[in-house]
Each structure stands twice: as structure tokens, then as C-alpha cells.
Amino acid sequence: MKKSAIVGVVVALGAVWTGTAWYTGQKAEAFVKQSIEQANVELKKVGEKWGVTPVVELMSFERGVFTSTERYRVKVTEPAADGKPAIEHEIVFVEHLDHGPFPLSNLKSGSFAPAMVASRFQLEETPLVKEWFAAAKGAVPLSGAYSVSYAKNITGNFDMAPVEFAKDANSLKFSGMKGDVTYATGSKHGTIALKADSLALAGQSEDSDIVGMALTGLTLTSDMTPASNDMYVGSQKVGLKNWTITSKEKPPVQLKDTVIAVDMTEANSLMGVKMAMDFGMINVQDKDMAGLKLVMDAQKLDSKAFKALNDVYEAASRRMMQSKGEEQAPQFTEEEKQVIKTNVELLLAGNPTLAVSPLEVRTANGTSTFNLDLDMAKPASLDGEFADTLMQTIRKLNAKLVLSKGNLSDLMAIEPQVRGVPAEQAQQTAKGQAEMVGTMATAMGMAKVENNNIVTYLNYADGQVDFNGKKMPVEQFLMMVMSGAMGGMR
After folding, report:
1. What is the pTM (predicted TM-score) of this model?
2. CA nearest neighbour of 403 among 444, 436, 354
């Protein structure tokens, strides 16, 4: 090939690249403006719930051939109240955009896939975040990067810088956080993965005994997609290597290897919610006491009813948080109570199920478990006597409790040890108490002792109860329970 031909090809490729980059810059600007419009639609919904006005505003967009720079702000306005004027808070970001089809910043990082735009953004210093910048000691507190494909799918990451803050008796020390995110604009499917090494807080409050809290090994993952009722389904998980709580008067408590996971599903207008909490070990006064696990699983929940109940609870919870301590629990209006009643009936009409599988307590000398499977139905009315309504609601129930004597004695020995009783003495006393519990439960017909475990189970269906192998009508079982309870009170 002649040299002139090669030069011509290079010039042509350069022209195509330049033209494509210029065109992509136009597309990127349009995408930014569209994204801001969509964000403001969602922020308006949030603002209406919390009584504030949040909005994202594009302050400037300087478009070049290969790169562009934009500045935008996120502004939140608190309405005037209690004789005070409205208050505006704002934070400002600056973004440097590299245009596609092959953004330079992506190529530098080893990503050779075509992309519409690649962004590097960071928080700018404003009065609202001035102290945050000071606590970051010269570093930018929040920065990151993301890439947008031509299908408008987003992949990115962000970095929160380490910070230290101290004022009077209050202090905060944070190792910083790194996060990875993805978002598909079409399906609204998003993922988040966060990681932070440590966070330590110290300070005193008039309404709390807690004076310090320290977290290490924090992780959070989320993989969510919108459901048909505008809620989100998918999985979320939070993990903590250590969580230490220090109080003024109570002994320090440390939670080791904590994992909390929530999974939500939807199929054929029915939702399912499964929550699992596992506290690997609960440590009190530098002594390992017990591990705790709880798994709860609710299925066959009518999607619309579940959404309505969730909305009512969220609204009441927001009012509680905005009451400045006047409300200690969510309070429902008369209208909300009617919404709850209507949607509980709708929920029960779908014959939902609830399982506890398991509630587990672990100690050095054993593990105790409780399992429950419950099938429910819609009663004739929710306005009848509570006992009658409850029996109509329960279609089927299977429950089993297994108490390890060794585990029970370990648990009974905790409180005396916290009071200062020597461990060996507390354990010996608790061992005798655990044996007594097994003997009394067996004598009263409430349980059996099997392989050093105190075991009791209850099965119920169609008005009949099977209690530890004894079958009887539910009325006879209730009379037996009442008689046992009255006997225990004497």
C-alpha cells in the first residue's frame, strides 16, 4: 500500500473518531439532562413523604469534542415552621466526561468496551459540607467514576475518604468506604456492593445510656428490581465483623460475625419475604455468652395488600421520627386503621404462610431450637372475639421446641456472672436449675426428655391438636393450658 494511502486511512479514521466523539458528546448531554429530570420525579415523591423539597439542578455544561465538564447541585428545602423561615441545603458536584465510543479514561483503566460516556466526579466544598472536608484532612470526601453504555446501562464506583471529627465530648472516626454500583435504565435493575473497614462513634445523649459504638468489617450488598406494585424485590445483606456498644451504666456488649439478610420475591401477584439474622457470638463484659440465629419466611402475600400495609407503616414511622421523641411507637390514624383492616383481610384471603425456621440459640455446651410452620386463612370477621378470630385464622400449625439442657444451663448462668458471681459457681447452680426445668416439664406433661434435650411439640389442624403425642380437640387443649397456667400462678 502506498504511503499516501496509509495517510489517507489514518486521516479518515481520525475524522470518524472525531465525528463520533462530537456526536456522542451531544448524546451524553441529552442523557445527563434526561437523568436529572427522572431523578427529580423520584425525589419529588420522597419529598412529599418527608415534607421537604429536594431537587437536582444542572448548573453548567461545557461540551467539547472529546470531553465535557458539568456542574450540578442537589438542593433540599425545609419548609418554614414554628415561626422560622424556610431553610435551603445544597451540595455541589463537578463531573469530567470523556466521550465515546472509546472514552479515554476507560482505556486507561483497561476497559476497551464501547461506551457513550465515562465520568469522573467529585464533591465540591460548600458551606454545608465544609466540616466534612475539614474532617477529611485535605482529601475529597466523596468521589467516583461511572461509565454509560449506548444502551444506557451504568457501571460505576465511588470512594468516601477517611474522616476524623472531634468536638467537645463527641467524636467520629471513619475508615472510609468503597462502593461498586450498576444500574440498567430500561429494567431499573440495580446492584450495590459497599465495604468499610471501621467506624467509631463516641458521645453522650440525654435520652440514651449508650456512650460509644464501634463497627469493624462492614459490608453491604443489594440486588434489586421493581415489582409490579412499585416495591423492589431481590436480595440485600449487611455484614459486620464486630459491633461493640458501650454504655454508661450497663456492661459493654459485643456482637461478633453479624449477618442480616432480606430476600423478597414476586410471582403471579404474590410476594414472599424471608429475613435471616445471625449473631455469630454475643459477648458481654469480654465473655462469650451465646450465638443467636433467627430465620423468618412469609409467603403467598398479596402484592397490593402488602404494599398498602407497608405504606401505612412507613407513613406512621415517619411521623414518629418527626415527633422529636413525643411518639415512642408508630401511631395510626382512624383512616389508616381502616386501611390496615381492609388489607389484612385481603392478605389473609390468599392463605399466606409464616415459618420460623429456626430460632436458634448456641452456647458452649449445646444448641436450642424453635421451629414453627403456620398456614393462615381469612376469618369470617375481624371484629369478633379475639380467641374465635384467631382460631379461624389458623388453618394449620406445627411447632417444635428443643431445649438443650447444657445450653439452658449456660443461659441461666449469664445473669449471675454479670452480677459478679464466679463462673464455676454460677454454672453449677444453673446446671441444677436446668435439670429441674426438665423434671417439672415432664411431670406436668408439657415436654419429654430425649437425649439430654427437653422436647415439646404441637401440631394443629381441623380443630384437632396433637400435643407431644396426645391427641385432643382444641377446646380440651386450651383448658389444659389454662389449668396449667393457673396452677403455676398458685
Report:
1. 0.86
2. 436
